[in-house]
Amino acid sequence: MPGVPLQHVLLVGLVLFALGLYTVLTRRNAIGILMGIELLLNAANVNYVAFARYSGAPTDGQIFAIFVVMLAAAEAAVGLAIVLGIYRNFESIDVDATHALRH
Amino acid sequence: MSLSVALFYAFAAFTVISAAGVAFSRNIVYSAFALLGTLFGVAALYVFLGADFVAGAQFLIYIGGVLVLILFAVMLTHRIADGAVSNRAAGGPAALVAVGLVAAVLGRALFKARWPVVDVLADGPTTHAIGDGFLGRYVLPFELASFVLLAVLVGAIVVSRKELRS
């Protein structure tokens, strides 16, 4: 992107990462934590694509970004299935409520 | 400042503000819709960074798939009526300090480091090179990814099936 220094793109990634980390650390709702993880993965992806764009060889970084998107989808599917299972067992998706492995 | 640069910063600000909405909203439904804004903004940033295919994948997989799944789970599992308590947060100040420290270290590294930047490429379609990469240099991770997706499909069905619970 001519006119935008690499640092500014990385700064967007950094802010996304910080906000995602804050979400993961503070949320009690399991779905909220999953949203935080999505933010973290997107931050990593922004950095991948930015480095790819500014390194002069864009393909490799973009391929890794696509792998990350794919794994994020897989993570969301399994994570939400687990959340549904937790809800069925504990009537709640607060992570505080799930301190025991069996009911 | 040219129009595209201004648009880039506008989309970056939009992304960051929506992400703040995800992090600080008191209502889980608002968080989910703020996540929609973040994912859209990130897809726009990909376009500006010349990654057209990644932007398309972001739209299809994240916004069309993951976000719908998250909204579905939100609606299924929570009493939306008491939205005020649906997204409680704990340990805010301590987390803010920890995140601030991490961000300070990363930001320092970001601005101190000398990044070797090559910015000469004209943006063009990337699909050809990405397809070559997937079926050439990265064919093993690509095949592994399809196995992972199959395992995830089976696993998600097994975990969420009712009969196995009893």
Overview of the structural elements:
The complex is a heterodimer of chains A (103) and B (166). Chain A has helices at 6-26, 30-55, 58-90. By secondary structure, chain A is mostly helical. The termini of chain A are far apart. The model of chain A has no long low-confidence stretch (mean pLDDT 85). In chain B, α1 (3-24) runs antiparallel to α2 and α2 (28-48) packs antiparallel against α3 (52-77). The relative contact order of chain B is 0.07. The model of chain B has no long low-confidence stretch (mean pLDDT 83). The chains are: A mainly alpha (103), B mainly alpha (166). Chains A and B meet through α1, α2 and α3 of A and α1, α2, α3, α4 and α5 of B.
Give the CA-based shape of chain A. Answer: elongated
Helix content percent band of chain B: over 70%
Measure the end-to-end span of chain B. 64 Å
**Form type of chain B:** globular
Structural class of chain B: mainly alpha
Number of domain modules of chain A: 1
Identify low-pLDDT runs of chain B: none
Secondary structure tally: strands of chain B: 0
Largest interface, chains and sizes = A-B, 72 and 87 residues
| Proportion of beta-strand residues of chain A | under 5%
Radius of gyration from the alpha-carbon trace of chain A, in angstroms: 17 Å
Major β-sheet profile of chain B:
none
CATH topology of the domain at 1-79 in chain B, which one? Four Helix Bundle (Hemerythrin (Met), subunit A)
N-to-C SSE string of chain B, H for helix and E for strand: HHHHHH
This entry's quaternary arrangement is heterodimer
Measured distance between first and last alpha carbons of chain A: 54 Å
Rounded Rg of chain B: 20 Å
**Top CATH class of the domain at 1-79 in chain B:** Mainly Alpha
Strand residue content of chain B: under 5%
User: How many strands appear in the DSSP assignment of chain A?
Assistant: 0
Provide the CATH architecture of chain A: Orthogonal Bundle
Describe the secondary-structure layout.
The complex is a heterodimer of chains A (103) and B (166).
Chain A: H1 6-26, H2 30-55, H3 58-90
Helix pairs in contact in A: 1-2, 2-3
Chain B: H1 3-24, H2 28-48, H3 52-77, H4 92-112, H5 127-135, H6 139-160
Helix pairs in contact in B: 1-2, 2-3
